[in-house]
Amino acid sequence: MKRICVFMGSSPGARPVYAEAARDLGRLLVERGLELVYGGSKTGLMGEAADTVLAAGGSVHGVMPRALVNAGIAHEGLTATHVTENMHERKALMSDLSDGFIALPGGIGTLEELFEIFTWSQLGFHGKPLALLNVDGYYDGLTTFLSHAVEERFLKQAHKDALILEKDARTILDAFAVYKPQVEAKWIDRKQA
Asked: Is the pTM of this model over 0.90?
């Protein structure tokens, strides 16, 4: 593994524990020699993680649509900034640049990114690990919903189990280091699908 994509809020959230988790993850990525791929913003959890990685001497790749760059929210001190024409290209490029995905707390944008990558895994478009960093129970409601989706047969248990859920970033990265896809699928080129 070389790069980890982190989906997270462009807001700091209501409690300091979220920003602390973003900074902790940033330090841990650098400690493990991993680069950060993220949405490119200078604000919220996104800015906290990027600033922490950069301050610790790590590399950060921001991926942002041109419209958001023009709105002035792009982080200007990144190792690399990749500008896309739209959100669809953004997510595809973030996926292509990354070897695994972690979702920190965030809003609907974070969830949308998470679920697209989760869906791509389910469909066999990639075999990369995906995890929720469940900071202070933030994702408890989501995991309850996913269990409900399994019970109602809209989601297979094997697909749900492919989503790693942990409270500790170290545990996630340890799991990533030995990850083997749980979902048996014929790998499909998403660009052709």
From this structure: yes
